[in-house]
């Protein structure tokens, strides 16, 4: 079996590249600069994928030739070890390439806007939402993504009620899209003087970051815009002017906000980008519903609807309920080591 037969449809990708290059050579290509930039970005990403594929195929061919060369000969331990190590390295490289090929959805290569909302559990749930936000910040750091809060609302006693995080990086949305759902925590409560076990819930939603002028119609009459003073750390401008912005989209009831930028204008632009992404995500859900592929991941934030459980007592384990994967090192997981499970979720999708 050839390498590409096991991984992806090489011919289709080459046809797509040829079509994109043909578009880029037309006289009116730059009449829409944003569309042109997206085409060039697609060409670059396909070329990267094909270059990597050809490099892997070449490595596979060379390794096969070496194996054939030594097949009928006695080889010393060092040569045998070197061949085995090369084979293992190539296997890891091919597996990593397979993951990138899986990220072939229309929005997988975009940045991600990840939102966390605390659910049943009061202060416990708000603290849990804060723990989840830290986990995704650490995940971003480990995987060379850049994460920043767009909006957050502090909890009454501890943690956060809700927040939105922009995660920038190649395929950020593709990797994180399967985090959508309810996340459940079981632990001895640090807020309970009787040290009883508590169960807390928080929901995670993920949308691709989209450009402001994408085909999502937003009319001024449909918007309610409120300004207020930003809360928390953020420099001298915080708490001195009404720079924070919250936008309500009246037809859908979607509420978004931003308070981490230095001016009201910047916060409004960022909030509009979040709103565009959420409306875009809403339109995609409508399409999926029509195709009888309803997104069943977004459920009530409570019992029986979780996609993942994090157990800190009476034992310590993370369990993903979609793949039945159990992870014993919960401390590393909460510190951002999600990539193995994320890749397993992508594989199970395929």
Helix content: 40-55%
What proportion strand?
A: 15-25%
CATH topology (fold) name of the largest domain: Alpha-Beta Plaits
**Helix and strand pattern:** HHHHEHEEHEEEEEHEEEHH
- Number of helical regions: 9
Number of strands: 11
General form: flat
Largest sheet: 8 strands, mixed
**CATH-level-2 architecture of the largest domain:** 2-Layer Sandwich
Tally of separate domains: 3
CATH class of the largest domain: Alpha Beta
Structural class category: alpha+beta
Q: What is the residue-averaged pLDDT? A: 84
Compute the separation of the termini in Å. 20 Å
- Specify Rg, calculated over alpha carbons: 24 Å
Q: Your description of this structure?
A:
- The chain has 350 residues and is α+β, with helices and mostly antiparallel strands.
- The protein folds into 3 domains: 3-102, Methane Monooxygenase Hydroxylase, Chain G, domain 1 (Up-down Bundle); 112-213 and 296-349, Alpha-Beta Plaits (2-Layer Sandwich); 221-290, 2-Layer Sandwich (Double Stranded RNA Binding Domain), CATH 3.30.160.20.
- It is 43% helix and 21% strand.
- It has 9 helices and 11 strands.
- It has helices at 3-7, 10-24, 33-70, 77-102, 123-142, 172-176, 264-290, 330-334, 339-349, and strands at 112-118, 146-154, 160-168, 181-188, 197-208, 223-228, 244-249, 254-258, 306-311, 317-320, 325-327.
- Strands 2-3-1-5-4-9-10-11 form an 8-stranded mixed sheet. A 3-stranded antiparallel sheet has the order 6-7-8, with helices on one face.
- The chain is flat and about 75 Å long.
- The model is unreliable at 233-239 and 291-299 (pLDDT under 50).
